[in-house]
Amino acid sequence: MQILLSRIENKPLFVSDELVDYETVLKENFSTGTVPERNGNRGRLPKKKKLTVDDDLDYAVVHKTRENGKMKKVELRIVFGDAKRIEQKLSQSVSNKINTSYIERSNGTLRQINSHLRRQSLTFAKELKY
Q: How far is the C-alpha of 48 from the C-alpha of 35, rounded, in Å?
């Protein structure tokens, strides 16, 4: 994420499946932390910062419902951002829908090319150079 942040000027539209880690990383990198002020009571200051997510962060999630191994329903949810701004970013992209097809295809290609990423393969990946 740090490499991405160093290379972009405007925040892109982030789209993922519902893995909680994506939302956590986006919150850590696209938010400002403020320490709560004293409320007049005695004692220590609260150490935990309150994170406020940036207003211009756009993040959407694809929720897939499956029954008996078949896809029954696909729902699109906006986690952070404005629906109009997300629609505008989608109109400028190759795809006009919120989907995860590009990253899934990239992952599939990586698994096909690099046999160490495959599941249940006979490739030996325990050597130091791998």
A: 7
Residue 55 belongs to domain spanning: 2-34+49-116
pLDDT in tens, 57-90: 999 998 889 899 888 988 888 999 999 998 888 8
Asked if residue 79 is part of any domain, the answer here is: yes
| Domain-located, residue 123 | no
Whole-angstrom Cα distance, residue 23 to residue 28? Answer: 9
| Closest C-alpha to 11, from 30, 35, 36, 37 | 30
Q: Is residue 108 part of a domain?
A: yes
33's tokens: 């932390």
Provide the number of structural domains found in the chain: 1
DSSP 8-state secondary structure symbol assigned to residue 120:
T
Q: What is the pTM (predicted TM-score) of this model?
A: 0.69
List, as own/partner pairs, every contact residues 85-90 make where C-beta atoms lie below 8 angstroms and the sequence separation is at least 24, other chains included.
85/56, 85/58, 86/13, 86/58, 86/60, 89/12, 89/13, 89/58, 90/13
